[in-house]
Write a structure and sequence with these properties.
The complex is a heterodimer of chains A (283) and B (289). Chain A is mostly helical and 283 residues long. Chain B is α/β, with parallel strands linked by helices. Classes of the chains: A mainly alpha (283), B alpha/beta (289).
Chain lengths: 283, 289
Amino acid sequence: MLDGRGAVRRRAGVRLWLSAIWLGLLVLAALLAPWIAPKDPLAQDLFLGRLPPFWVAGHEPGYLLGTDSLGRDVLSRILYGARIALVVALVAGTVTCVLGAALGLMAGYLRGWVDVLISRFIDIWMAFPPVLFSILLIAVIGPGLGSIILAIVIIDWTRFARVVRAEAMAQGAMDYVASARVAGRGRIGIMLREILPNVLPTIVVLLTLEMGIAVIVEAILSFVNLSISTDDPTWGGMIAEGRASVHQAWWVLMFPLITLFLTVLSFSQLGEGLKDRFDPVLR
Amino acid sequence: MSYLVIDRLTVRLRGGGPLLRAVSLQVAPGEVRGLVGESGAGKSMIGRAVLGILPQAAEVVSGRIMLDGVDLLALPPGERRRRVGATCALIPQDPLTALNPSRRIGPQITDRLVDIMGWDRARAEARARELLAEVQIPDPDRVMRCYPHELSGGMRQRILIASAFAAEPKLIVADEPTTALDVTVQKQILKLIKEMQVRHGTALLFVSHDLGVVSKVCQSLSVLYAGMVLEEASVADFFRAPKHPYAAALLAATPKYTDPTAGLIPVPEAVLVATRAEVAEADRRAEHG
């Protein structure tokens, strides 16, 4: 396949498509949850507790993936859970990325005291145990969606700052930056228009990884009951509840776990795929 | 009246030794001045100091850099950047890293015209096309839409030359512009730089370690060792009779292609020792006023 300049264009890999399709389905599920969910995710019915999924004997029609011990529909809860998972992934991932990348870019290009300040701060920050730190944070400011996002941003910005700093430093030593400086471009202009585009492929990979990590962190915090209020269905919360009855009703644990696994995997594969596609040197 | 006057410029490594030791030199409008010396002699540092792109680790300690009668080192950074951007340009050493890999060629040439000179985009693009044609690039329209990795090293160096001449600068610093190219391309590029320089009447600070190249391109030269100017002469005088023993040894060390049996001649140890003593003596004098 050739593009407009007569250059060979690489085909997007299978994994890029598979992960994009899975994430697309999740977005649809999150947006359309009230219309496509077969049941009310909060409706309890103790007479219908621990119903198995549709291919196992003893299932009830209408409960495709079975019910949990309180009789709530697992499929509906997974669909609603996608909402929180995706909001956390998008918002926490993006905020972390912008904050960390901006600090990393400044440290890596400006160097000098800015770099010393930011780098030492990163070193100190990374010495805190992250899970303990986030649990402590949420215990102090109280659980809720905003708290989870804040916890993720506070823990993970260093990952971006570190990597982007190193890349910006390497790019800053290139002659094209010197040329841009001679051509009268200021520091901010050089950072945004010369260096940032070359660091972008790395940032994209980190961003998608971070979205996966955000989903995991949200699940971990739900697991220790520090996420959203326990009524709202979250994948982590479902896994935590399913753990208690895993011997009697494995599906309560397994389905949210598989969803979580595929989502995190898709995010990281999407990043790799996008990097191959948008890196002008690899392209 | 010289266009560029460098007066006793001293540059040192932050918290380290000197890189340039009270370097003085002058470049007249339209003059091509060669800066020669072995690697580490500080040739590139002079050009970088003029353009305000010294590496982070280096700092100007003392001296003046007068560009068209204005001391650049006394200007506030923004003002200096605008002045240098409007009147000077750089032809860098390595064409492979001197173009931004993730931007198309066109905007990389027109940036300066739009940002510093205040041209509108259409006019800047027309000018870029004209310049690319002038440096003998076929199909400038297509090349302007290309990314750097789609072009050869020679093509990229031509683009960098076109880009350097875009804003009709008064002074261009050419930092070993042909070192990264293979010999056949080297010759074409040198010829091109010389032609462009003559046609546009631009002064050129030509950094090179190759005396053969300098003899073809430059009118005058400064020989550097350990950040100190040892000899300043017109090219004709220098190649007839170099005065400083180190400069003479450097000239004698230039390989002669006419005699393939002759080996490489290094600069004699005695000359190096004497030259280093001279540098140390200059340092002592500078320290004690």
